[in-house]
Amino acid sequence: MTLPRIELLLALLGAAAMVLAAMATPWMKFVLTIALAKGIAVLGIMLLLRAGQVSFGHALYVALGAYAVAFLAPALPDAALLLPAAALVTTIAGTIIGLFVSRYREIFFGMLNLALSMVFYSMLEKFYHYTKGTDGIRVPSLGVAGLQLDRVTYEWTVFGTALALAFCFGLFARVYLASPMGQALAAIKTRETRLDFMGVSSRNVLLAAYVLSAMMAGCAGALIAMTSRHVTPLLSYWTASGELVFIAILGGAGGVLGPFLGAVAYELVRVYAAATVADMWQMILGAVLLLVILFARGGIWGLVSVRLQRRRTA
Amino acid sequence: MKALLQARGLRLAFGGVKAADGIDLDVMEGEFLAIIGPNGAGKTTFINMTTGYLRPQGGTITYDGTEITGRRPREIVRRGIARSFQLPQLFSEHTVEENAALAIAAREGIWSPLAPLLRPAWQEEARELLGRFGLLPLAGQRADALNEGTRKLADIAMAVALKPRLLLMDEPTSGVAASEKMAVVETLARVLRDARVTAVFVEHDMDVVERFADRVAVWSQGKIAALGPPARILADPAVQRDVIGIERPATPGGVAAHA
Predict the structure, then answer these.
(1) Cβ separation of B115 and A186 shorter than 8 Å?
(2) Does A206 score more than 60 pLDDT?
(3) How many CB atoms lie under 10 A from the CB of residue A97?
(4) Are residues A197 and B73, on separate chains, in Cβ contact within 8 Å?
């Protein structure tokens, strides 16, 4: 069996396992929806990592997507419309900001994104009249495609949407990374100047990936808003951006399953660690990150793919 | 034969060092023009100015009737001028085949997010190109695993994949083993002649220059000190002493006096 097919099989098995876990433990549905949403945002960050660029500010787009849902929900109380609306808002914002940040590389790229996300955080916090400051905005109950659903059905619908989006974005990212545009991202990392001398604008290559990553993060934010039904400026805080980078490293950037493996592992460790050792859960996550960096540079997906390749060659 | 590239009065200095001090040069369509000269004479600077990497402080560069002075590398490549590098600029995480395919994609337009890079047509073209350079057996190897000579050839193959009318090569044979040098250049010359590419190459090996160049330009302190057919230029005692390093009876004024 080829690696892409194994990946697809693993994705389907993972999806089935999540559905079973959500059925067996109802509160798990919420945790897994958030994990899938974060996985989608990290998938976008992974595109940028292919170009060797780390964004420490993508929580900006998660928050923007979430607040787009919160602001538009009273006028447009339907998840089927709010999700594309959030995607559109973050695509536009990603294009405008991307035109600026795609000129920079490495630490400057990372820090500019961080700075912009913190500007957005401050705006959400200070403009109380519109944003309700640190209190945040409560999202009213939403319909789905014109239907008014009971709470459980609604939660299943959002969970299913998150799963379907994760699958579609994962599939798209896989195709994108194999395309000339995706391969040019890796070329930016190794020999950007050569791209220019081949007539390719490396800036536009990075911009395209940046806009896609912003849109994915926006969809993630919309899903988080629809699930938690409450948005606060903390969604845009720098630790939220750091969390996404943490998940990218934990899951591994070598394959499209990595972000989702990382996100699920992260959320589960966080939930269980917070429940058992409330004061130490961040220390546990830190130790996990340290172990990954020291002993598994390819993250969880790196460990899985190495085993798969060994088995195929054996 | 018409001039494909015309440089007029090109000037560029780095601090007090004049890398180009009034360069006038016509590159004729279809010819192989070798540039020789000591290190620091401004040979690479000429390539860098022609390909848009450096902006001259004075003078003009005209390509096929259009002035391209100071234009961006991307724009110049699209007009038909490609280059290879003294230190090969390969995408090290990609295979040799993917490197070639990326160059083909750059020529054809990379903005297709849903079709794979190694689509059948581009893969076939990449393999055919690598075959012409004798690199097909290495198609699946990562670029960073190649030896220097092979990297050089792959670097040039990528430039050729862009289907340029004018190819500028910076020391195409440096790093190539002495025993393989002539074979490599034979291959290169055949590929370029077949593709009707005009070539300008910076070279330190005078055997290569003598055998493959139609004309030779001698660079000295940012100026063209001599220009003409290899037989005449390489026999010049001043060129032999100042550029090649063969001691002959001194010529007053050195190589600069022959401009």
Answers:
(1) no
(2) yes
(3) 22
(4) yes
Beta strand B215-220 with B32-36 is parallel
How does pLDDT run across B186-239, given as a tens digit for each residue?
A: 888 888 988 899 999 998 888 888 888 999 999 888 888 888 898 888 888 877
Averaged over A230-245, what is the pLDDT?
A: 92
Q: Mark yes or no for CB contact A179/B92 under 8 Å.
A: no
- Span B123-133, average pLDDT: 92
> Mean pLDDT, to the nearest integer, of A71-84?
92
First to last CA, chain A: 13
> Complex ipTM, two decimals?
0.84
Closest CA to A101 of A58, A46, A40, A41: A58
B148, pLDDT greater than 90: no
Burial tier of A291 (Cβ tally within 10 Å: 0-12, 13-18, 19+) = exposed
> Hey, are the CB atoms on A184 and B107 less than 8 Å from each other?
no
B236 CA: distance to closest CA in chain A (Å): 36
C-alpha A178/C-alpha A175 separation (Å) is 5
Over residues B55-64, the pLDDT tens digits come to 999 999 999 9
Hey, what domains does chain B have and what are their CATH numbers? 3-90+146-258 (3.40.50.300)
In the block, residue with structure tokens 């020291």: A294
Q: Which residues of A touch B96 (CB under 8 A)?
A: none
Q: Mutation target for A interface from B72, B74, B160: give the one with most A CBs within 10 A.
A: B74
Contact call for residues B210 and B204 (beta carbons, < 8 A): no
| Tokens found for residue B157 | 């193959």
Q: Which fold has domain A3-313?
A: ABC transporter involved in vitamin B12 uptake, BtuC (1.10.3470)
Closest chain A CA to residue B77: A199
Q: CA geometry: angle at A249 spanning B95 and A95, to 5°?
A: 80
* SS3 state of residue B197: coil
From B93, B112, B116, residue closest to A190, measured CB to CB? B93
Confidence of residue B258 (pLDDT cuts 50, 70, 90): very low
Q: Compute and round to an integer the Cα radius of gyration of chain A.
A: 19
Question: Does A281 or B258 have the greater pLDDT score?
Answer: A281
Determine which helix (DSSP H) or strand (DSSP E) holds B96, and give its type and residue range.
helix B96-108
Task: Check if B162 contacts A (Cβ < 8 Å).
Answer: yes
Flag whether residue B163 sits within 8 Å of chain A, measured between CB atoms. no
**A65 pLDDT above the threshold of 60:** yes
